[in-house]
Amino acid sequence: METLKAIAASPGIAIGPVFLLNAKHIKTIKRKIDKEDVKTEKERFERAVSRVEKQLRKLISELPEEIKEHSNILKSHILMLRDKMVYDKGIGFIEEKRVNAEWALELVLNEIKGLFSRVKDEYIRERLEDIGFVVNKVKAVLAGTETRLDFSSVEEPVIIVARNLSPADTLHISKEKVLGFVTELGSRTSHTAILARSLGIPAVVGLEGVTSRCLSGETMIVDGLKGQVIIEPDEATLSEYRQRQENYLKYRLEVIHNSNLPAETTDGYRIKVMANMELVEEIPIVIQHGAEGVGLFRTEFLYMTSKTLPTEDQLFLAYKEVVERLKPHPVTIRTLDIGGDKLASDLCCEEEINPALGLRAIRFCLHEKGLFRAQLRAILRASVFGDLRLLFPMVSGKGEMIQVKRLLGQIMDELEKEGKDFNRDIKTGIMIEVPTAVLTADILAREADFFSIGTNDLIQYSLAIDRVNEAVCHLYEPLHPGVLRMIKMTVDSGHRENIEVGMCGEMAGEPLYVPILLGMGLDELSMNAMAIPKIKKIIRQSNQEECASFVSELLGLESANQVKDKVVEFFRENYPPDMETTDFLEFDLSLT
């Protein structure tokens, strides 16, 4: 028996025989071509791209109705095929360097890797994986080695073990024949992981070397909750995991059954529980897990996957689809929250020494007004199709909001003259994530319809902590007394001006913090959809008045350790333990 640990990508427990998928590695050979052969090689490149494009369109048309919403991922792959970064560059390298199409694609991939290497954000880095899938599909066609998952020889449900699975491979998977999968590459933010969660297939990813450590037919346990893989388990381990599998299935049934119950405390305090999301493909998960809407819709994806900036119409159609599908629930769209260094487009931006403190978010948008105008016009046009709210990130003072509101007013006048429908009374909110925004929250509250506290950046900026810096990341502490006081100050300032105050940072989805957030008097919590049922359950077990009294006590403490000890003690005294608190909760929190 061998136990291996990696990344928990999709929850659940699978037990079954291994189906080892040994994908052939395509060795790319550089071949110089004569000038008169350039045209022929370009035509060969074009035929390969067209073939892959045709394959993806065929797959989209064959998707069963219950997973049709995932077609957008494949559509984005089709767009990547014809994108300047892939198609134009590939053709360009064939012409300029007089090399074969395979080598031109190798150069394309290396250049794109260089662009993405500067990006710290894990989710954005994972988009490189999508480009890699697309490029490798074309290379496989050129090399005559293209393969497709074939389960015709499979007689019983199996666990797939592979170097990697593309989103297209994952959508080929038959749930009747696949119990779970394990891959050597990937992360929990990859499209493959997102699809696995949506399809309900347990998965562990990032397990380097697993394909050489097991054989087809061997028994394997995939623990998609803890990120564990057990090869050839003994009888005692098998028995234990069969019981855990049964417990998890009961838990999931309870989640689905209770997810739409209201988030109301025992003394009648009602708080809205919303979802954070970024992709249309996440909508089924958002609905299934009982979200009362979307408290944070991140809009960066469309900007990160194209060499050219998305057009107003492209943005409008994307926002319209999200708003219509979630109607009548509200959707809060956050405007672009990245700097030019993270854009895949041709927009020229100087490299900054410290991008986190530079030209990003609202500063970047006000600097690049053409880009900002297109996004605001698209959002306003989509606002007539449902309950849509606007959220502006990284606002540090009133001056920025005056500029934003002036620009918004000008765009509304333009749309009116053009005869285009929009909601002139659209609600606008401010993300509170900069210390000066907290200190002037009383002033900002008069400029907004609502606040949304982004604790990730607020904590980082307040404590001067870079969360991705291993030397100081241990100092990142949500329970620091200063952080708690800033949250309370923001809530009180908003309520004095009669506006709602929500939270969309990681703190909102942490069960241990629920009593604190209830006691602070927050009106809304927005989190990863997977965490919603558990958070709702804890809210329904809470008494808001007791939580408010508890928060008053916490605000008088002097250190994060003192606060933590008190919170753990309060939690143990007031909330009954249940069987899913450890393993199942562990996975939910790993995604928040």
Overview of the molecule:
This protein has 592 residues and is of the alpha/beta class. It folds into three domains: 2-23 and 148-238, Phosphohistidine domain (Glucose Oxidase, domain 1); 35-143, PtsI, HPr-binding domain (Enzyme I, Chain A, domain 2, Orthogonal Bundle), CATH 1.10.274; 262-590, TIM Barrel (Alpha-Beta Barrel), CATH 3.20.20.60. It has 23 helices and 16 strands. The strands form two sheets. An eight-stranded mixed β-sheet has the order 1-8-7-3-4-5-6-2. Strands 9-10-11-12-13-14-15-16 form an eight-stranded parallel barrel. Helix 11 runs parallel beside helix 13. Mean pLDDT is 84; it is low at 587-592.
Return residue spans where pLDDT drops below 50 for at least 5 consecutive residues.
587-592
What is the third-level CATH name, the topology of the largest domain?
TIM Barrel
- Would you identify the CATH architecture of the largest domain? Alpha-Beta Barrel
Q: Largest sheet at a glance?
A: 8 strands, mixed
Which CATH class of the largest domain applies here? Alpha Beta
Number of helices: 23
Global morphology:
globular
Distance between the termini: 32 Å
Strand content range: 5-15%
Tally of discrete structural domains:
3
The largest sheet has its strands arranged as: 1-8-7-3-4-5-6-2
Give helix % range.
40-55%
Find the count of extended strands (DSSP E, 2+ residues).
Answer: 16
User: Can you say what the CATH homologous superfamily of the largest domain is?
Assistant: Phosphoenolpyruvate-binding domains
Radius of gyration, rounded?
A: 25 Å
Mean pLDDT across residues: 84
